[in-house]
Amino acid sequence: MAPEKVIPTEHELEQLDLDDQRTQELIRRAQESDVADRQLSVRQALKKYKKAVFWALFLSTSLIMEGYDLVIITSFYGQTQFRERFGVWDDRTQQKQITPAWQSGLSNSALVGQLFGLVANAFCQDRFGARYTMMFFMAWMAVMIAFPCFAPSLPVLAWGEAMCGVSWGVFQTLSTTYASEVVPTVLRPYVTAYVCMCWGAGILLSAGVVRAVTGVEGDMGWRLPFLLQWAWPGPLFIGAYFAPESPWNAVRRGKLEVAKRSLTRLREDNTEREAEVEASLAYIQHTTALEKAETHDATFLDCFRGTNLWRTEINCVVWAA
Fold first, then answer.
1. How far is 157 from 105, CA to CA, in rounded Å?
2. What number does CATH give the domain 54-242?
3. DSSP state of 184
């Protein structure tokens, strides 16, 4: 359950009392946890942390909704039922069409909402934890789906898309962060890659739904694909309620007992589990202490200063890809 090996700098070490007996014991247990984590093969890690893998994959499934909507909204521009409901008469084609301006607006409204969701998640997950953040925005999603489902006009539809986009922005980073924090290092490439699979699955699912409703007459031809999105928030909300909290997130918020319970739930039951949980908890505490020592006076503005600016640019380009 450990991240990449942490090599403290002199500045970080100055913030820690290395002569303190508790600190020395914490470092010793952290080192034991790091060594044990790095000795695991993929098969051993899957067997030992199958519960962690399950929860990581389950919460990442929320990204199917985002991939689903990406195709749904753009597919409606050529759908007869949608054009009859929201289009304007075009003399050249002698039929109703969705104007280019509204096509652009509808296609990008959800993306605008996602930007706000990404920022909201940075605050909410750090303050309230992954579980409660996921549950809140699942409930938010369940309410906001009503806007595109029953939109009387294009402005209301665009507003609904933007509000749904807030949830999708949260799910983008929350699911990846949660997945990387609950599984050991050797499994992280696999569980985080599953996020991309969920995007693809959503796109594939929406293509099938759009094809299936081509023969549906009236407003249900475009409303039904939106209505089907209500199938997701309920099960995912319940799953998030029963999911263990990210131990890393819990330690950062000072919830050591929550972190300990999560670590216990995320690994297989054996005679060594209690000792392994204590070692993993020590590793997380030690790493978190080093991070706090290094960033105790840092702000978001520091992401755009010095060498951090280069890191920020790399992350932006990777996400844009």
1. 10
2. 1.20.1250.20
3. -
